[in-house]
């Protein structure tokens, strides 16, 4: 059993910065990176295998060619994992507004780093679609949202239809379905009829977000998020942590340096590395570092 490491796809957006370069040296410095797509089979934003037997494969091609590595049944790779540098402000948006299920439209987030001014806005004080229409026309939807401070270690689930925006200086791990569809509602200058239709169809009144309550499930292991689509755990391997391969793959994103040991082999991971443990392999040990472990359902 060998971990499969991936090369991310970088995306520049106005709210990005240079924190990913500063935190994780593998990122290109001097370029404003907003989103690092760590694990993705989404067209035009695919990640590739970095080394080993499958070097050069895109995740999409590997998933098709070697389904036994993953153990899942969906015709598409079921997760998208990103690292976000929110130096500026991510405009308010909603997920959904289509025919996909609620599970597909739910995403999870874990705050790796937060500045003193970091914030999350969600929900709305608006009371109906007429007020929403006026607020969208005036660019005032975000002004109607509730704001809460955010700190490192917070984790959130964002269900479909809940308006949300983030800003104030954060580095965030995000996990979602590749089927998730988001509609910006805060910065629409000339929205199309379809964009307006999706926003109104998805929008939920009377719901806002709050940090999830973490649960320690074993020494060094904390359950952060649990959904129909995935689970997310934080592993602090200051003391070695034993892990067993399951019937489906697991995806790790390392936040600091350590090593994975299996049999007489050891594989080093650095902060910012994302790698997959194939399904059905032998047990292994994580030694050193902090990692986020995502498991599909």
Give a quick set of tags describing it.
297 residues, 4 helices, mainly beta, single chain, Jelly Rolls
Task: State the oligomer.
Answer: single chain
How many discrete structural domains? 2
Name the CATH superfamily assignment of the largest domain.
Jelly Rolls
Q: Which stretches are poorly predicted, pLDDT < 50 over at least 5 residues?
A: none
Helix content: 10-25%
Describe it for me?
This protein is mainly beta and 297 residues long. The chain folds into 2 domains: 4-202, Jelly Rolls (Sandwich), CATH 2.60.120; 215-296, Sandwich (Jelly Rolls), CATH 2.60.120.10. 11% of the residues lie in helices and 38% in strands. The protein is built from 4 helices and 23 strands. It has helices at 19-23, 59-65, 129-138, 193-202, and strands at 4-7, 9-11, 35-39, 48-49, 80-86, 89-95, 107-114, 119-122, 146-149, 155-158, 164-167, 170-176, 182-184, 215-218, 221-226, 230-236, 241-243, 250-254, 258-262, 265-269, 274-277, 284-287, 290-296. An 8-stranded antiparallel beta sheet has the order 4-1-21-18-23-16-15-14, with no helix packed on it. A 6-stranded antiparallel beta sheet has the order 2-3-5-12-7-10, with no helix packed on it. Strand 19 and strand 20 form a beta hairpin. The protein is globular, with a radius of gyration of 19 Å.
């Amino acid at each position: 059993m060998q971990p499969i490491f991936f090369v991310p796809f970088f995306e520049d957006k106005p709210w990005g910065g240079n924190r990913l370069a500063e935190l994780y040296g593998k990122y290109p410095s001097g370029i404003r990176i907003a989103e690092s797509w760590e694990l993705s089979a989404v067209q035009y934003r695919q990640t590739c295998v970095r080394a080993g037997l499958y070097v050069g494969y895109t995740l999409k091609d590997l998933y098709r060619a070697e389904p036994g590595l993953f153990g899942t049944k969906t015709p598409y790779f079921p997760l998208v994992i990103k690292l976000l540098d929110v130096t500026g402000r991510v405009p308010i948006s909603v997920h959904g507004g289509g025919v996909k299920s609620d599970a597909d439209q739910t995403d999870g987030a874990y705050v790796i780093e937060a500045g003193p001014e970091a914030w999350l806005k969600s929900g709305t004080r608006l009371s109906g679609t007429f007020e929403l229409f006026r607020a969208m026309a005036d660019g005032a939807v975000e002004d109607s949202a509730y704001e809460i401070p955010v700190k490192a270690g917070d984790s959130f689930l964002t269900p479909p239809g809940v308006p949300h925006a983030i800003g104030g200086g954060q580095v965030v791990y995000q996990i979602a379905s590749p089927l998730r569809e988001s509609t910006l509602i805060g910065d629409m200058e000339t929205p199309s009829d379809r964009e307006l239709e999706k926003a109104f169809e998805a929008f939920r009144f009377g719901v806002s977000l709050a940090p999830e309550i973490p649960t320690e499930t074993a020494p060094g292991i904390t359950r952060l998020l649990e959904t129909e689509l995935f689970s997310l755990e934080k592993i602090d391997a200051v003391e070695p942590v034993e892990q067993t391969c399951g019937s489906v793959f697991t995806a790790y994103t390392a936040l600091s340096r350590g090593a994975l040991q299996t049999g007489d082999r050891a594989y080093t991971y650095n902060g910012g590395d994302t790698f997959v443990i194939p399904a059905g392999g032998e047990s292994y040990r994580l030694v050193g570092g902090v990692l986020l472990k995502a498991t599909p359902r």
